[in-house]
């Protein structure tokens, strides 16, 4: 959908975007005068929740910010008064693009090429996606969202230097792009630059205060650093923006578990296991991993292992998917679900995919070797994990405790 020449089609982001006939009242988003004056453009993705009895819009959440809080607000304001045909949809994902008419004339072919490349990316065909994004940039080097998408594709391929370069170029072209800051933060955290990651998450939220994914990702960042209170606050905000976001429930369940709050962790996990994993491989892998974590909290090792393995199958180049499978296989309290040999293999794969730059993955490799009975290797990799000066104090303390176990020739168990 483009506000300069409205058209509806299936989204490049998914299959839940409606056709023209599903909207019975359409209101064109305003292009705020101050944003137009600065010639700011942007593309965003908005999730609309409908009341199944009245088909009125009850919530609009920003899945992907346009990069401008002004443009996000204009899109939300218009979408809130749209009306839909009865009983067709409960949730709808709608892409909205704000484009200056003068620039659209020169970039339409580039955008079409970029749309096809985005479709390839979401299907896991990274080689075709990169080739398409390269062509789109050749046709129009000013398209910020193309640099962001190519950066995300390089990230998925494990080419971190090129990914960082693309996110940096997107920010240079548009210093107000919340999407670019948010996506760069994910990568910075993976390459052990947590302070830069937090600064970028904070900037993304300042630029786009309703950017759901920025709160979700920053919450995950805080949870990883054992800062559970701040993680829960961000997941609360993510759920406020998108009340049916089962992924945020899954993450919040883990944060409550980290605090030892069994009541709230179990309640959120029971909501999270009801999610239906989405179709596109990257989103599906994330959904499966979070559902597996919820099953783990509930003690359902069989279903957790099923989802962890399926996540690896769906996204074989995801270091996080391999890492979480390895952690489960090495540390789950019930012996029938542990497998030290498979855990070591999965943990080594996660380290390779992250170019041995994530100390958290080395920590997982250490616990995997301990489960396999090779405590010398466990001690070696736990010491390497502890050598990362960027690790949060609470996490460093946990790793030191694990090292003590390995020195006593004992494996680690991840109790509730």
Structure description:
This protein has a three-stranded antiparallel sheet with strand order 3-2-5, covered by helices on one side. It has helices at residues 33-37, 69-79, 101-122, 126-139, 144-157, 160-173, 178-190, 194-207, 212-224, 228-241, 246-259, 262-272, 281-297, 301-314, 319-331, 340-353, 359-372, 375-386, 393-407; strands at residues 23-25, 42-50, 57-64, 83-84, 91-98. Strand 2 and strand 3 (57-64) form a beta hairpin. The model is unreliable at 1-20 and 102-106 (pLDDT under 50). Helix 6 (160-173) runs antiparallel to helix 7 (178-190), helix 15 runs antiparallel to helix 16 and helix 16 (340-353) runs antiparallel to helix 17 (359-372). The chain is built from 19 helices and five strands. It is globular. 50% of the residues are buried. The N and C termini lie far apart (46 Å). The protein has 416 residues and is mostly helical.
- In round numbers, the mean pLDDT is 86
Shape, per Cα inertia axes: globular
The count of strands amounts to 5
Determine the N-to-C terminus distance. Answer: 46 Å
Summarize the SSE layout with pairings:
Blueprint: E1 23-25, H1 33-37, E2 42-50, E3 57-64, H2 69-79, E4 83-84, E5 91-98, H3 101-122, H4 126-139, H5 144-157, H6 160-173, H7 178-190, H8 194-207, H9 212-224, H10 228-241, H11 246-259, H12 262-272, H13 281-297, H14 301-314, H15 319-331, H16 340-353, H17 359-372, H18 375-386, H19 393-407
Question: What's this model, at a glance?
Answer:
This protein has helices at 33-37, 69-79, 101-122, 126-139, 144-157, 160-173, 178-190, 194-207, 212-224, 228-241, 246-259, 262-272, 281-297, 301-314, 319-331, 340-353, 359-372, 375-386, 393-407; strands at 23-25, 42-50, 57-64, 83-84, 91-98.
């Amino acid at each position: 959908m483009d506000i300069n020449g409205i058209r509806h089609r299936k989204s490049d982001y998914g299959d839940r975007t409606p056709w023209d006939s599903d909207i019975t009242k359409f209101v064109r988003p305003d292009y705020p005068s101050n944003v137009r004056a600065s010639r700011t453009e942007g593309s965003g993705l908005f999730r609309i929740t409908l009341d199944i009895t009245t088909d009125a819009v009850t919530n609009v959440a920003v899945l992907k910010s346009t990069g401008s809080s002004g443009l996000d607000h204009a899109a939300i304001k218009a979408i809130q008064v749209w009306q839909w045909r009865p009983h067709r949809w409960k949730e709808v994902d709608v892409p909205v693009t704000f484009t200056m008419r003068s620039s659209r004339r020169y970039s339409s072919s580039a955008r079409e090429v970029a749309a096809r490349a985005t479709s390839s990316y979401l299907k896991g065909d990274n080689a075709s996606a990169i080739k398409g994004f390269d062509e789109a940039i050749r046709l129009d080097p000013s398209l910020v969202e193309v640099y962001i998408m190519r950066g995300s594709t390089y990230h998925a391929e494990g080419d971190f230097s090129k990914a960082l370069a693309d996110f940096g170029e997107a920010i240079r072209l548009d210093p107000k792009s919340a999407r670019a800051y948010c996506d760069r933060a994910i990568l910075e955290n993976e390459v052990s630059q947590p302070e830069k990651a937090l600064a970028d998450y904070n900037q993304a939220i300042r630029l786009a205060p309703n950017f759901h994914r920025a709160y979700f990702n920053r919450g995950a960042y805080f949870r990883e650093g054992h800062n559970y209170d701040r993680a829960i606050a961000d997941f609360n905000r993510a759920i406020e923006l998108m009340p049916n976001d089962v992924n945020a429930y899954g993450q919040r369940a883990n944060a409550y578990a980290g605090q030892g709050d069994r009541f709230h962790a179990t309640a959120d996990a029971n909501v999270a296991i009801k999610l239906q994993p989405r179709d596109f491989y990257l989103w599906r892998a994330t959904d499966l991993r979070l559902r597996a974590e919820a099953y783990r909290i509930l003690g359902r090792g069989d279903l957790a292992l099923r989802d962890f393995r399926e996540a690896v199958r769906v996204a074989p180049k995801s270091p996080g998917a391999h890492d979480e499978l390895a952690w489960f296989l090495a540390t789950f309290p019930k012996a029938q679900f542990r497998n030290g040999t498979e855990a070591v293999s999965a943990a080594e794969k996660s380290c390779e995919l992250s170019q041995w730059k994530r100390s958290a993955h080395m920590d997982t490799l250490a616990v995997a070797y301990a489960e396999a009975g090779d405590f010398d290797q466990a001690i070696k990799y736990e010491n390497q994990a502890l050598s990362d000066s960027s690790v949060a104090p609470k996490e460093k303390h946990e790793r030191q405790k694990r090292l003590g176990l390995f020195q006593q020739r004992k494996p680690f168990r991840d109790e509730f």
